[in-house]
Structure to design on (80 residues):
């Protein structure tokens, strides 16, 4: 199926017919990865990475944390 690359803002864009999207099993607003290989562009579903809070907290170290930041005195009763 022929298609035409056009300009959309400052970027090139390629419109995908809904039939092509459905046949490939993609949905609107789905995140995808673009892979360039041997002069071709491949569109594939993005991996859904799910992180647990425990996993994220385990990555906190003294080397990657910052000091407390003061923003001045409270103007209202924000924190007591």
């Amino acid at each position: 199926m022929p298609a035409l690359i056009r300009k959309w803002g400052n970027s090139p864009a390629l419109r995908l017919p809904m039939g092509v999207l459905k046949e490939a099993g993609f949905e609107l607003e789905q995140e995808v990865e673009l892979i360039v290989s041997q002069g071709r562009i491949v569109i594939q579903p993005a991996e859904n990475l799910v992180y647990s809070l425990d996993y994220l907290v385990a990555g906190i170290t003294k080397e990657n944390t910052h000091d407390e930041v003061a923003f001045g005195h409270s103007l209202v009763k924000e924190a007591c």
Notes: The chain has a mean pLDDT of 89. The longest helix spans residues 18-24. The chain has two helices and four strands.
